[in-house]
Amino acid sequence: MTEQSRTLPPEALDAWAATLRQRFDLADDDVPVAAVLDMTRDVANGVARPAAPLGAFVAGLAAGRAGGDATAVRDALEAVAALAAAWDRP
C-alpha cells in the first residue's frame, strides 16, 4: 500500500461520512467529523497511534450510554482528548 493510497482527499472523507450517516440513519450533527479527527489526532500524539481507534470507539460508546445526542458525542470526544493530553506514559 502506498502512502498516497492511505490518505483521503477531503471530498472522499465527506462522502464516507455521508455514507455512514445514511446507513445508520444519522443527522449531520451526529457525526462531527472535525471533532472526531481532532480527538484521534490528540490521542495518537499524546498516547500512541494505535490508541486513536480505541479512543474513538470508547468515545462513541460513552456518548451512546450518555444519551447519544450531539452534546453527548462532543462531551465524550472532549473527555477522551483531555485524557490523552494528561496521559503519563507508564
List keywords for this structure.
mainly alpha; 4 helices; 90 residues; 0% strand; 67% helix
Strand content: under 5%
Largest sheet: none
Q: Would you count the extended β strands for me?
A: 0
Poorly predicted runs of 5 or more residues: none
How much helix, percentage-wise, in residues? 55-70%
Q: Assign an overall shape.
A: globular
Write down the Rg: 14 Å
From the helix content, strand content and strand pairing, which structural class follows?
mainly alpha
Order of helices and strands: HHHH
State mean pLDDT (0 to 100 scale). 91
CA(first)-CA(last) distance? 33 Å
SS element count, helices: 4
Compact description:
The protein has 90 residues and is mainly α.
Describe this structure in words.
The protein is mainly α. The chain has helices at 10-23, 33-46, 51-65, 70-86. The radius of gyration is 14 Å and the shape is globular. The mean pLDDT is 91.
